[in-house]
């Protein structure tokens, strides 16, 4: 037993034995993993207080038992040697015991000199399970959802699954968010997009679809440099059609952490006090390729910000012209937004944690049955195959396309994220308990009344439709200057992930027919689906139909009555 253990136990020796009996285990876990905590948590800088310029780090951690004053603060001081290895310089030191907060919070006070070493804190080399153990014996099914980049469309799908499972006490939902690479400080206005497409059409007529060209970032910088008759402003806009490099992985971690907390916020609004777990697969950032030109990245994180947060964001974008300084300021901005949500009492009972594959695998093995509903890359399914749990899982995926011309990228988006994983999983699909796909033509075939979705998803869904589908300015949305009732009461929009989920949950309501596809690998590693009378099962739905508010009501009432395939 270390002196730190003895000191901390001495401080809590007077507490009720019944409340403290497992504290030894918690403290062992805390101190045993504290040296790896920097690698296991997204970078989170406190929004207040001056950060000393130093090459050291201080880490504060709180842990305790609900209802008892048994948590302690542990301080470790780290330094980095010439090779970048982290070494403990001082500690651990125990500072008293503090009132319990509903979940263990790890706050990293980042004091690294901005010009110094960049540390990848998101890496994990071992287990990082810090959540309360689940009584798995009382659970006979785990439903897992892998999240995709179209956060707005996915949120509607999340709403559908939430309605279908919230009254089923034996069903546990794990919400898994797969992050995307980002580059802070890049964005395009609608006017810039319009002008850029005009310039592409004018100077690069060989590109048949200027929008696809811009979205993929297919223009090369050298080709723009060869154009001599461009104004300075037009050259700057046309250069946005060149795909930029990704930003730091830590920036993607910050973005993913904020997106996960935003998702948790929406789930908390719909919650009937059922346990909510959101897991973020930070490790996937090393294994996916975001095919989107990051100048065109949709900033879904802005929809959920306060008016003051938006003002600060746009002030940074407008006034801080130096790209590196702007990026630093935006990192601070993300940290402030994260800090606010992490201290929001409404989220105090919601778990938003790093995905630890070993923990997920253990729960899959113990559960009675498992269903995976996905709209992201297929990497996690490849891991299930590699770890011999695929035979336990019923998979239902929105993935693939039967029409190459309908793809915005060289592959359908979810395949493009990790082509190798897609090849492996699709070729071994028979090893899963069930494996059904919803190709693009089916996923995009249904439009939903905007007001009908708002009826069940509330303002949370409304904000995302206004931002993503209606392209309204974020400040107008946040300040309630626009609404679906006022401007879009007669509008309906495609929600691919929602359609995919509903095909699985309520196949009879959606009108889809069972069919099969075979995978055809074409030139350039493109995977194309071909309809067949054998192969991988699919939901097939041709044509386009629109669901009005009454039809959406019937669907969601069926979900809440439990008339679902789970």
Can you put this structure into words, describing what you see?
The protein has 566 residues and is α/β, with parallel strands linked by helices. It folds into three domains: 3-109, no CATH class; 140-183 and 248-447 and 486-560, Inosine-uridine Nucleoside N-ribohydrolase, Chain A (Alpha-Beta Complex); 190-241, no CATH class. Helices cover 39% and strands 19% of the residues. Strands 8-7-6-5-9-10-11 form a seven-stranded parallel β-sheet. It is globular, with a radius of gyration of 25 Å. The two termini are 48 Å apart. Mean pLDDT is 76; it is low at 1-90 and 92-153.
Summarize the structure.
Helices cover about 40% and strands about 20% of the residues.
User: Overall pLDDT, averaged?
Assistant: 76
The CATH topology of the largest domain is what? Inosine-uridine Nucleoside N-ribohydrolase, Chain A
- The CATH architecture term of the largest domain is Alpha-Beta Complex
β-strand number: 17
Structural class determined from secondary elements: alpha/beta
Give the domain tally.
Answer: 3
Biggest sheet features:
7 strands, parallel
**Spatial order of the strands in the main sheet?**
8-7-6-5-9-10-11
Radius of gyration: 25 Å
CATH class of the largest domain: Alpha Beta
Number of helices: 23
Described by the principal axes of the CA atoms, the overall outline is: globular
How much of the sequence is in beta strands?
Answer: 15-25%
Given as residue ranges, the uncertain stretches (5+ residues, pLDDT < 50) are: 1-90, 92-153
Compute the separation of the termini in Å: 48 Å
CATH H-level superfamily of the largest domain:
Ribonucleoside hydrolase-like
Residue share in helix: 25-40%
Region (Disordered): 38-57
